[in-house]
Amino acid sequence: MTNWQWLKQILLAEPALEDRGARQMVIGVLSVALAVDVFMIIVEVNWLVMIGFGALLLVALLLAWRGHLTPGRLLVPLAGLVMFAYLMFQNYGLRDTAVLGLPMVLLSASLMIGRRGAALYGLLGIAVVLLLGAAESRGLVRNPMSGLNTPADYLTTSVSIGLITALQWLVIGRLNDNINSARRSEAAQRQANEALRVSEARQRALLNAIPELVFRIRRDGVFLDYHVSQVERLAAPPEAFLGKPVQAVMPPSVAEQTVQLIGEVLATGQPAQFEYALSLGSEVHYFDARMVIGGADEVLTTVRDITERKRAEERLHASEERYRLISNVISDYTFSTAVLPDGQLHLEWVAGAFESITGYTFVEYVARGGWLAALHPADAAQDAADMAQLQTNRPVISEVRTTTKSGRLRWVRVYAHPVWDQAANCLVGIYGAVQDIDERKRVEAERENLIRELESRNAELERFTYTVSHDLKGPLITIRGFLGFLTKDALAGNTERLAADIKRIGDAADKMQRLLNELLELSRVGRLMNPPVEVAFEAVVRDALELLQGQLAARAVQVDIVTPLPVVYGDRVRLVEVMQNLIDNAVKFARNQPKPRIEIGARAAEPDGQPVFFVRDNGLGIDPQYHERVFGLFNKLDAQSEGTGVGLALVKRIVEVHGGRIWVESAGEGCGSTFCFTLAERAAHTDRVE
Amino acid sequence: MNGEPVLVLLIEDNVDHAELVMRTLADHRIANRIQHILDGQTALDYLFRRGDYTDPQSSPRPHLVLLDLRLPRVDGLDVLKAIKESEELRQVPVVVLTTSEAERDVARAYHYHANSYLMKPVGYEDFARLMDDLGFYWMSWNTHPRW
Hints:
The complex is a heterodimer of chains A (about 700) and B (about 150).
Chain A: H1 5-12, H2 20-42, H3 47-65, H4 70-90, H5 101-113, H6 115-137, H7 151-209, E1 213-218, E2 223-227, H8 246-249, H9 252-268, E3 272-280, E4 283-293, E5 298-305, H10 307-329, E6 332-339, E7 345-352, H11 354-358, H12 362-368, H13 370-374, H14 380-390, E8 396-403, E9 409-421, E10 426-436, H15 438-492, H16 498-524, E11 533-536, H17 537-547, H18 549-555, E12 558-561, E13 567-570, H19 572-589, E14 597-603, E15 612-617, H20 647-657, E16 662-665, E17 673-677, H21 682-689
Parallel strand pairs in A: 12-14
Antiparallel strand pairs in A: 1-2, 1-5, 3-4, 4-5, 6-7, 6-10, 8-9, 9-10, 11-13, 14-15, 15-17, 16-17
Helix pairs in contact in A: 2-3, 3-4, 4-5, 4-6, 5-6, 5-7, 6-7, 15-16, 17-19, 19-20
Chain B: E1 7-11, H1 15-27, E2 33-37, H2 40-47, E3 64-67, H3 76-85, E4 94-98, H4 103-111, E5 116-119, H5 124-141
Parallel strand pairs in B: 1-2, 1-3, 3-4, 4-5
């Protein structure tokens, strides 16, 4: 078996495929040669030699079939040449038909090997003919035809073979040129095809990489073509829309918009963009379509599914809306502040109702100096105490005032929690919440005010009933007492004291009436008020002086008004009443002076710059121990003085209703006295007067 | 009863009331001498011999003080308090004679050791009767302190 291995290998091994054209040529030539050979065998011309040659051809053919061309190429022409030369020598020399084999060998060689083969076997053929001629002429070869051939015959035959060789050379050269040129052109073509293929593949990859659908749509809305990286991306199979108008495929609103935009794009040449929603299955999908001009009568439309983006946008929007709602609803904001090693505070973030509480944006707030800059100076000590507590790792709840962007003070409640660095054992941050408690504080203050007012009203009422019972009873006792004397005197016929006693009774009744009137007046203050107006204080003073004119003239009181006087806001009639009472008082105090003098003016001595109105006299003055009592109901400094003791109580009440306060300044007896009072600013007391 | 002249210090800001008191007491020929003072401050000046009353001749010790409560400048209760806090004056009987019916005034008057608290009656008969009884009790039956 091993003896056949090599053959098997050659025959059955994978063929070494060389140039396909060369192989076909070799097989063709060998096949033709074999056919001729078989014919010779059949006609029994030199059949023994022909069988040997045929066997050689068969082997070469088989090898060529398997792709091994070299044996056929090299051996067969050589063997053919030798065979034909042998037959010529052996049989009839130049006249033997074997001479025809020489051109055949030449042709075969040229076909299988090329130009060089033609040249080689042409020369070899000439050599055989010349050799034969020489051998015959020398008588070395003998055959029945010897002697018939002249040297010219040999030469002619040689030249013929040479010519054939030359022609063959030229033909092959020409053929080779053609083949080469064809090959080159073929290679170029192949190269171009390859480049095209690569480019197409690249474009396809590029198209596939685009997550979009691309449609070609005609002016009338008919879908001409589409591209999609994955067919699954199509909402409908291609046959459902290709060749159909958009109106038949899309919902009316989308179709209408599409057709309109196609018109616009084709008209203007400008790209267009629009978004639309489609219900696909149970879900709504959102698409973004961009349209560009794609030809004289068509547009290219890319469609991208933006559902995810839309959903994200919706979620973001919902989240923002929720955040905004929460911020609106809660009155607090939360914060985180870093405490730097140098003790500086660094506000890191805020969340919640920060802007509505402070009025600042975060950036504005930080730029302005943050918490400490906004803190009301009066609460700095409180804040410092809070910080000290945080520095000991204890949380703080504190109520302080902060200045908002609009400049107004707002009460806030701060819940601050320390962020403690256990390793370094120090405060590194504060987080907490700030609550707007302005309204609560306002209500609290209002409630406290009301309570205070109520308490003072109660006390006043108590004093009132007490003093009323005392002071109203006084005249009554007088009246009844002197009526008794009158009766007794009348019965005794004693008329001496009659007139004086009757006068006492009359005066007591008058006093009682005056008391009742003034008490009524006092009770009206705060209840019955005229609407507040802007009025020049000087006009108020002039009005009061007008009312007291007679009294002032009778006592020759010098009145000095220190101008300018500010404009005030209040119940003009009541303010005149105040000035009238104070000037009246001053006149009484100064009545014993040789040159009674009253000074009226305003000074801005209050810490908040509010004007202090004053009425100064050069009278007897008031001992400091009585400074409070003078404003009490029925409290009189001088038993001899006329008046009921209601005047200053009334003045005090009016001033208080106007949101101000009243007091008296006097170094003591003989130093004169100055009655001072303030009136609240417009905003502060308007609601009270209502 | 003794024939010694009795001095009453009447501290009363209402001149009509003072007249009523003095006239009724005179009608019953009880008080030999009545010193009327109009306000609390003057009363204290008299009692403590200050200001216009530094001379003891001008301010003899009263045997009885009739004190109204609501007085100008210094209140009647403050006068009472000053009298009863003074080592020298506390033995002088002080009778509060006032229009006030307030419980608070009654309580405070006794708190400051008033010797009696009388409300001025409205009506001549009652007033005259009160003065009569008052005069008889304090100036006849009562043994006043001696100085």
